[in-house]
Amino acid sequence: MKEQHVLLDYENVQPTLEQLAKLSPGFTDVWLFYGPHQAKPAQQLAATHERVTPVPRSGKGPNALDFHLSFYLGYVAARHPDAQLVVIANDQGYDPMIEHASKVLGFHVKRVGFKSGKAPVATKAAPAKKAAAAKGPAPAKKVAGTKAVAQKAPVKKTPARKAATAKAVTPAVPVKQAPAKKASAKKAAAKAPTPAKKATSPRSVVTSEAKTFDRIKKGLAKMGDKRPHKLKPFLRHLESMLGQASTPAALEALVRKLAQQNVVHIAGDLVLYS
Known about the structure:
Layout: E1 4-9, H1 17-23, E2 29-34, H2 39-47, E3 52-56, H3 64-79, E4 84-88, H4 95-104, E5 108-112, H5 120-135, H6 137-152, H7 157-169, H8 178-191, H9 196-223, H10 231-242, H11 248-260, E6 264-267, E7 270-273
């Protein structure tokens, strides 16, 4: 008879000894891995069978007990290479390790899940029915509310008639002619702002751009042999001459205008002057 070692993740599932016998019939040894919260039931389970070995978790950390179980699985497999190894847990994180141990290393390893005898599904179904029943009368209440609003609607027609009569009386009063003069005065005041300033602003911009271009053109001519002949130094020089008005668009427009007026000729990385 082959040995059958059960490695039980007691943090994950808590079967009884009788349930263990059904999950892994004919087991010879049980390695019981538990945390501090399962200490008492784990010790009680270990006391019921002489072949149950309790293994308390050491330290803290995510998946700490899982690593304990994985280490012992390798230990038992090395000591009993022909034994059947059964991991009892619902944690599917063990599956890659078990697949590697069985398919690659050739050990007899498998995982068995455990479901307790309780039926939580039935207890959850009852509240769902109550919720559905509670939701049923709600639309009826809303319909009743809409009917009440519809009945009150005709009462609000009387203010509308008064408003109409008030509007009919107002045209006969000649006193309201005075605001018309104020309105005309305001319109005249609104027309007063001079749009001529907006028309003159483009001219000032054009003249300032022309002055800037002439200044840079003369500056390049005065530099003589000290003028930059490489493109990057040339662009940096133009940026410094533009000053605060230096933007990528302004720099590009300046270079284009210098080339159009034959001030410079750009050939690749070289800058030639006429």
